[in-house]
């Protein structure tokens, strides 16, 4: 066992809940709440329904001790199947949190894993739930950075966030350090090293591979618990990635996640925010705008062009997102589903938008997400935004109230205000002494239409 892995194991398995800083635990509660809001909001969407039905069809549990209810559904499947269904569902409403250096997402698997694993162990404290969330974020984030730093292709989050799931499972199920090591090796070997830019070029329900990351992570932990072995995870144990793990327990990635104001690929957010700011500052409506030009980083410029014909393309489309903001001053689930995909006003604005790569923005990716926008008005004037960074992360954070309001916006249509508020209060209350995960668990497994 390498020194780096021993450090990871000590952090994940042995650090007591009260030893995590209050700031990290507060951030964990907010990211847990934000992710649950997206899980709820995505429940009625086609991808979520397919994922849950597929989990019932394919991932049933023969061992009651390894079964779990699916989030906001209630049907029992295997613990891995429950995590898969919720992660796939959440991944298909692109409003969940992320971490710039990983170029991807962590909460989308950590929260489903926590909820599924909680069904297989005895009840645990609220602070322990937050500690498990922190462990998942800190391990997954560093695994993602290590992978991106050592391979030539750009892999989806599922390729590395599976290791964060293993960390959560190992902590909650009481695995030994050696069992966790084997589980990490299994998860890394079987993790979906799917190509992100392939999905960007052809947007589908595959999204960021996180459903399979959750499935692989839970499955790997169970395999290792039963004695299955795996080759050491090189994203942890290889000598050239050791620097990425040296600050574990000192620098808290948990506190540096971004929250998305819109259910759209993060790569489009800087352009959306720049457009939004110009319109607000100059009291503009769509009637005042003749043309919009966006300069952005290369990956953002590769997002889907034109008018999307399905939800996946809508969430991976920069022009559509900007046009929706121009038309409505907001972007909600209703804009990326159903009739929102064929709205004539939005389509007419999309035709006025052009996108180019700017080298200065590309040079700052992935650490930053910058764009600048030029709006030509119908009277001939040209307004320039200057360089704008996407809101929601450390560079331009949303405050706690905004995150909570976002949860209520996404959760209330399916949950109703009373149950949504109860979930909100239970999540925020997890940090309190004497709280239990079951305080939240009692609210999150029943179908969305049940109070």
TrEMBL record:
Gene3D superfamilies xref list: 2-methylcitrate dehydratase PrpD (1.10.4100.10)
Residue intervals of the MmgE/PrpD C-terminal domain: 262-426
SUPFAM superfamilies: 2-methylcitrate dehydratase PrpD (SSF103378)
Stored Pfam families: MmgE_PrpD_C, MmgE_PrpD_N
Signal peptide coordinates: none
Residue ranges occupied by any MmgE/PrpD N-terminal domain in the UniProt entry: 7-235
Domain of life: Bacteria
Family to which the UniProt record says this protein belongs: Belongs to the PrpD family.
UniProt protein name: MmgE/PrpD family protein
Organism: Ruegeria atlantica
